[in-house]
Amino acid sequence: MTKRAKTKTTLLIAAILISLPCSSILAVQSSGQTEPKPFVIKGRVTIQFEDDVDTKAFLSGFGKANFNLPTLDALLEQFEVSNAEAVFPWRTERPAVNSKIPDVTRFWEIEFPESIEVEEVIRALMQNPHVRVAEAVWAIPVAASPNDPSWPSQWHMEPAGPDPNFYTAWDTETGSDSVIFADIDTGVLYSHPDLIGNIWVNPGEDMDGDGVVYDPDDLNGVDNDGNGRVDDLIGFDFFSGGFAVWPGEDGGAPDTDPKDFNGHGTHVAGIAAAMTNSGVGVTGGAGGWFGGNRAFRGSRIMCLRVGATGSDGNGYVNSTNCGTAILYAADNGANVINASWGSQATGSMAVGMAAATAAGVSVFHAAGNENANDPDYLDLLGDDVISVAATTSSDAKWSSSNWGDWVDVSAPGANILSTVSNSYSPGYANYWGTSMAAPCAGAVALLIKSMMPSLSRVQVDSILLATADNIDAINPSWVGLIGSGRVNANTAVLSLANAKFTADVTEGISPLTVNFTDMSPNSPVSWDWTFGDGNFSSIQNPSNVYNNPGIYSVSLIIDENHPLGLGEEHLRNYIWVRNDTLKIDSTLGIKGTTKTVSLRLANTSLVDSVQFAFGMTNWAGVSLDTFSVVGARTNYFEHIKYSVSNPLFNRWVISLRSDTSGGSHYLPAGSGVILNLQFSILASAAAGVITIDTQTVSGRKTSVSSIWGDYFPNTYMAGKLIIGCSYGDANCDGTVANILDLTYVVDYIFRGGPAPDLIGGDANGDGISGNILDLTYLVDYIFRGGPQPPPPPS
């Protein structure tokens, strides 16, 4: 990578103007006021011990910290040190001698009364033979002045005008959920409806395998993946406090919940990877492609909280926590790290960056917002960090963006619309600053890595810089001072090898035959397919038979003689093969008795809810008394009963759903009874003996909702497979599109009647059941000779 040298004799912390929060909390500053500056946190010092200190000998108790070293312990007692914590607690073993891996076990943070001067403690510790370095802990600003709270469109994502061309790039690549974006900031509001589908879920902590974001079921107090952090389900809250925070903000010790109060970290996350094509809110640069039956998730957001809203209304990050979070991201598979805050030359930051560089992680850093040639520590790390300046919608340097020959590239940073957290409530707002430019550039790196996962960090960074659009003509006063240009996502992805494929079906009943088609545009000369079930192929357009139920990831690697290497496409959880069955027991009953009939489900996927409907049209003198899940597999489910009386028919719908109040509680894969129905055969029954079986229970397909989507299991009654309703058979009586079906839909739309069958109520076959278009379709067919409903689904 070609990059200008970064030199400066004095390191200063950049106070970064990076957000325009729309909440009143951060509205205490007007745009004309002075920017908040970094300050030293009272009562905190970070120590790097010499090699002779056995950190495993550390003891604490009764308000004292002790390392079993007389001179050191005397100092700790002198300064009333009440606690000491390892900065990188999951790294407990020292690396081998002569290893290039930093010995992070040497870094500790101590706490003492705020009345004692930090400088005094540092001077004394630096004279102790067991201490190599003692440093202050800094609170570095992230918040900025409020501005116009209007929500214009995302100019930095639109196809027209000078922009990074994300919309055009999405024709080629939308982002892969195998690529991880580490958002090291004030946290992420991971429940935001525009982010939740792209939040990273730590597979080692997802004990029930349901992929639920911050699932209470997985909070078991155990370090299940052995990475040194307990219950780091979606990242971690590393913020250790040190300064007074805004009322309502989390200012306590590190914990498992990295939720964002301030809004800044959530804004950064949305720029990089908000869910694209989801029908909600905004788009993200590498946010995948949602919508339709199967969503293609985008790059995953690893939520790492290192800061909070201070009592002055401004956001700050803790410098020591930043170093810890960088090392965590490097250790846990991050591909891109975003640092939209100033930085300080501390030992913990240096260790974190050394780990990130060694792990091949691209790091994007906000250049700062003081309109100054003023790099900070991360900006001076040469090729290890991409420093990003901010531009406007006209490709001009944003007026407050920092500049210099140390800047690597520019990206949109003025008036950027994205997701925010308003004191833990989801929202949207426009922010200004290089903090917005950094994740915008980072999103291009996510797309590059998604297209060619085998590329190294150096290759990814080099491609991003080389494909940026030169904007010197628009910025004649800043030639050579705002990097190689403004990032261009489309140019970047078009410079790469491009593997693409599709399948004729992506879900169905086993055995499922899937025909794959190579869609790679650049004439590959070889193909390497992996179907996820142990089968492989080297032909261009193969077929594969999936015999066993499951979720399968599919990969295609092509050779198109590209100088950068092979093209790759990896679609996780792409093929869904089912073999779920629903069976209903049959029984005989006589007048004056009650009978219980069981509903049995065999499911191969985690199930969230079941809806079972049946009719009693032919049951004169038979009534449903009650139902129960006692003793059933669903005994912890919530359950609701719906009854409908109608002069033309009598139908029942029973819905079971998991109790989500304390966790997910999905029905695990397995088989057995999920519902017991109790019927009474009254003395008025037309027949002396009533058969409750296929002939008497209307054969409507039961709908099931699972973690992979909604479906209809194969339904059996008395051993007979029930195909289910046809399109237009709204009441599922076996007759398609007659006056009874029309009446059923009218009752549903205008009279609050029961919902029609998901298939039967869909008279026009558009995938939506029981709306005004279906009603019109039935009227046209029945009374005006219009087209008949589509043929029944297979």
Describe this structure as you would to a colleague.
There is one protein chain. This protein is α+β, with helices and mostly antiparallel strands and 794 residues long. The chain folds into five domains: 24-141, 2-Layer Sandwich (Alpha-Beta Plaits), CATH 3.30.70; 166-494, Peptidase S8/S53 domain (Rossmann fold), CATH 3.40.50; 501-574, Immunoglobulins (Immunoglobulin-like, Sandwich); 581-724, Immunoglobulin-like (Sandwich), CATH 2.60.40.680; 725-794, Type 1 dockerin domain, CATH 1.10.1330. 15% of the residues lie in helices and 28% in strands. The strands form ten sheets. Strands 8-11-7-14-15-16-17 form a seven-stranded parallel β-sheet, with helices on both faces. A six-stranded antiparallel β-sheet has the order 4-5-1-6-13-12. Helix 5 (319-331) packs parallel to helix 6, helix 7 (434-451) crosses helix 8 (457-466) and helix 10 (739-751) runs antiparallel to helix 11. It is globular, with a radius of gyration of 31 Å. The model is unreliable at 1-34, 143-152, 645-649 and 694-699 (pLDDT under 50).
Which labels suit this protein?
single chain; 794 residues; alpha+beta; Alpha-Beta Plaits; Rossmann fold; Immunoglobulin-like; seven-stranded parallel β-sheet; six-stranded antiparallel β-sheet; 11 helices; 15% helix; globular; disordered N terminus
Question: Can you lay out the helices and strands and say which pair or pack?
Answer:
Blueprint: E1 39-49, E2 59-61, E3 64-66, H1 70-78, E4 83-86, E5 107-111, H2 118-126, E6 131-141, H3 166-169, E7 180-185, E8 235-237, H4 264-273, E9 288-289, E10 296-297, E11 300-305, E12 307-309, E13 315-318, H5 319-331, E14 336-339, H6 347-358, E15 362-366, E16 386-391, E17 409-412, E18 416-422, E19 425-431, H7 434-451, H8 457-466, H9 489-494, E20 501-503, E21 507-509, E22 512-518, E23 526-530, E24 536-537, E25 543-546, E26 550-559, E27 567-578, E28 581-584, E29 587-590, E30 593-603, E31 607-615, E32 622-628, E33 638-645, E34 650-657, E35 670-681, E36 689-692, E37 703-706, E38 709-711, E39 714-717, E40 720-722, H10 739-751, H11 772-784
Parallel strand pairs: 7-11, 7-14, 8-11, 14-15, 15-16, 16-17, 21-27, 28-39
Antiparallel strand pairs: 1-5, 1-6, 2-3, 4-5, 6-13, 9-10, 12-13, 18-19, 20-22, 22-25, 23-24, 23-26, 26-27, 28-30, 29-36, 30-35, 31-34, 31-37, 32-35, 33-34, 37-38, 39-40
Helix pairs in contact: 4-7, 5-6, 7-8, 10-11
